[in-house]
Amino acid sequence: MTSKEMEARIRELEQENANLKKAEAAPVNAPLQLPDPSITPIIPYEETQTVTVRLFRDEYRYKAPLYVSINGKNWLIKRGVEVQLPKYVADFIEQQMREEAAIWERVEKEEREYRDQTAKLG
Fold first, then answer.
1. Whether pTM exceeds 0.85
2. Segments making up each domain of the chain, as ranges
3. Would you call 93 exposed, middle or buried from its count of C-beta atoms within 10 A (0-12, 13-18, 19+)?
């Protein structure tokens, strides 16, 4: 490549760079896309709805308070005593407990299948 060709190529790249900078600085006029309300879940709970909850406590795995954070609001829930919580927080805790139980069921199922397959192999 000759020096004139290199200079021409450098000018091309500088022009491309300038065009990219202009494109980045240009305002974006795309309309804001909001979620479809027909599929967006609506939580029907009011802030004033409260329920009494008592979390399981033992001296091993479940002795520390449970930390819950939802939409920037935080709770540190003591175990083994009854506490008043907003209903949506209690529902969240219940949902997490159901998911944890489902995970442990899946783990146990996988372990059984593994034991059965290894027993067949001898």
1. no
2. 50-121
3. middle
